Amino acid sequence: RRVHGSVSAEQIAQNKDLKQLYEGLVMTETQLMQTFSKHGLCKIEPKKGDKFDPNFHEALFQAPLESGATDNTIAIVEKVGFRLHERPLRPALVGVFGKQ
Q1: pLDDT in tens, 20-34
Q2: Distance from C-alpha of 49 to C-alpha of 68, rounded to nearest angstrom
Q3: Is 88 helix (H, G, I), strand (E, B) or coil?
Q4: I want to staple 78 with a disulfide (CB 3.0 to 4.6 A). Which of 42, 70, 85, 93 is the partner?
Q5: Per the confidence metrics, is the pTM higher than 0.85?
Q6: CA 82 to CA 63: how far, in whole Å?
């Protein structure tokens, strides 16, 4: 996931070697995730505003409520988690909106 945000589209378009490296990393990630999924290993990818679930999420910090946000919902995702057949292997690391 880090490769997606670390290089701008302009840099990739200008540098042929960087483009090939980037495409190779994306293809590798895609195939790896397909293989994981086939065997029951899936990502836990919560979105901003999802309800905090302590079974699948680990709260790293509490953020002040924003307008439109509700208490005990996800503010930011620091790291995705993984589960194997509905059993969490690593919880998603998140920040949670809360009353201050």
Answers
A1: 998 998 899 899 999
A2: 9
A3: strand
A4: 93
A5: no
A6: 24
